[in-house]
Amino acid sequence: MPTVAELTDLYGNFMLGPHPGPGVCEVCFTFTESHARCFICAQQNSSLDAVAPISYSIASGQLHHALAGYKRLGGEVARRLQVELAAVLWRFLVGHEACVARAAGTSAFDLVTTVPSGSRARDEDHPLRRIVSELARPTRTRYERLLTRSDVTVQDRTFDARKYDVVRALGGESVLLIDDTWTTGSGAQSAAAALRQAGAGPVAAVVIGRHVKRDWRENERRLRALAQPFDWSSCAWHGC
Ligand SMILES: [Zn+2]
Ligand SMILES: [Zn+2]
Description:
Blueprint: H1 4-9, H2 39-42, E1 50-58, H3 62-72, H4 75-103, E2 111-114, H5 120-123, H6 127-135, H7 137-140, E3 147-149, E4 164-166, E5 175-182, H8 186-197, E6 203-212, H9 219-224
Parallel strand pairs: 1-6, 2-5, 5-6
Antiparallel strand pairs: 3-4
Helix pairs in contact: 3-4, 4-6
The structure holds zinc ion (2 copies).
């Protein structure tokens, strides 16, 4: 059995860790032109107390292919990607869950859940749940399927708390939401809003890949300036 470090070392060659600073969105860590928030995050109050992308995911890059392939490809290839992505999540949370909790104003997360797919059919057998509830040791004992896709029709990539149903009332528990990719953040933000309405305490999101396009404005230059190989000892909230 390969170790978590062995399974993730290859990913360290192409993962790019976000860090806060000028020209980086304070909510989702995408690159901005000197604004504190990107266009989308500026439109609304964030329902999340902290968002921690493990890495940027460049369109058509290696992480992007892994994050698409683990759910789209079948058979052994998909299962291998699920194990690798679970190891990425595992290694990140061992090192940095405390950083994310601190950023969200709590000492630890009581519950862990996943952001459901936007489509009910796809959500029924979603491999992200396997990663979080079975494969990744830091999350599996606290995992609970708290959210399901509701019947409400919501446009893709639109924030709406009615998008998800919460399966039970909460009593102030802190919740760590896990998602594979953040593009607009509408899924994670809608899920966090629904959890809050159900009585959750602090809610944070860890996403494996913060989707970015290399050819958008200054992104190529900004991405090149990031540390390589990936530094597993640091995170977006390290030392904050
Ligand atoms: Zn943003
Ligand atoms: Zn950290």
